[in-house]
Amino acid sequence: MHLTKDYKFWLALLITAAFLVFFFAQLDFSDTLGNLMSANYIHIIPAIMLYFGALYFRSYRWRFLLSPIKNVRVIHLYPVVIVGYMANNILPMRLGELVRVFYLDRKQSINKAASLGTVAIERVFDGLTLLFLAGISSLFIPLVDLLEGLGGGIGLNWFALTSLMSTPFLLVAIFMILGSYYPRQLKDLIVVITKFLPRIVSPKVNNLAGMFIDGLRVLRGPRKVLIVFIFSIPVWLMECGMYYLVAFSFGLNNFVSPTELIGISILLTSVSNLATSIPTAGGGIGTFEASAVATLILLGIDSNVAGAYIIVLHAALLVPVTFLGLIYIWFDKVSIFGLAKETSNN
Question: CA-to-CA distance for 272 and 293, rounded, in angstroms?
Answer without folding.
Answer: 9
